[in-house]
Amino acid sequence: xxxxxxVLTLFAQSSRLSKKRAFLTIAAIAWGTVAILLLLSFGEGLxxxxxxxxxxxxxNLAVMWPNETSxxxxxxxxxxxxxxxxxxxxxxxxxxxxxxxxIGEVTSWRTALTYGRxxxxxxxxxxxxxxxxxxKHYPVAGGRWLTPGDEAxxxxxxxxxxEMAKDIFGKDDPVGKTLLVNNSPFTVIGVMQHKTQMGxxxxxxxxxxxxxxxxxxxxFGRDRLNVLVIQSRTPEEMAPALARLNEILGAKxxxxxxxxxxxxxxxxxKTSKQGQNMIIGxxxxxxxxxxxxxxxxxxxxxxxxxxxxxxxxREIGVKMALGAKARWITWPFVLEGLVYTLVGGVAGxxxxxxxxxxxxxxxxxxxRVLAFLGRPTLSPVxxxxxxxxxxxxxxxAGYFPARRAAAIDPAATLRYE
Length: 417
Fold this sequence. Notes:
Distance between the termini: 31 Å
Number of helices: 14
């Protein structure tokens, strides 16, 4: 009889005689597989959601607030206030054409917005048109963002954050309706699509209203910027862009370009990189916990196989004494470990897939925790990683006990009880 046929016959005989052991072994592997897949899926879902949350504020941005100098410059003492105006936006944009967006923001806090009998005190922001794309202010269907015409003609149009729209209009569609901003009528042109933000300044976008800054200046009589925002094409270009910006504004306002306090700066690119590193660390941590859980399952399989070898020592010795080849002893154990691991792994993957799919069906609109942390997500990388770990565990769990079985001395087994 050929070796493969002998190996399969011995494996089938062993499986029939130890059904309970086979079931427990497969259950252990299935449990470990479910654990590692769920942990890796939660890690992947968290990573993707955090990435979306991070991008929802805008990509490759840096935000600057007016401050005071901390270094003397050309005979001038430190402690001088640096105050930017709306004219500085075009001033910077003309000298740094490589920037996709230069944004100026002027803000009125606790402004009265009235519709009918309902009045809400909220944040009204005056800004330029490029703000919409750079800061991911996309309108829901039926609405629109500010246009160059709105800005040039100082139109009284207003774009609402989704939470503010809900506060003022409830379930009614606000687009096309007129509300009062400090008793001045404005037409609602759009409502922002809902987004979950990780990084905010001044408050979440969902709770503010945006109008053209030319209209803001006419209404409130202010043109000093609360915030200046620049956007670079790539993350790598942000650091040199900030250095160049301080050279330009330093020359205009008379401060040392290396003075980091003249304009307080939040480099979102730098913060995002730190956040990405943190998420990668969490993923590695979750993966290690899952892998250790599965490894414990593999150790359980190996222990069971060692117990089988001990239990069948006398039988193996007799077979070897009657001329059984070493591979007829070794391969059934290796095959047993691989088959148990394979069946347990497939069962675990099926259960984990059903659980992840079920969690994916839960609506996240009303669940802020789920909306922020994301849904568990199975990916090809996770499946391939788990399959690789399972294969290695199955091979090792069968190989080492098999090697021990093949090393048994037939003569010594005759004394074994």
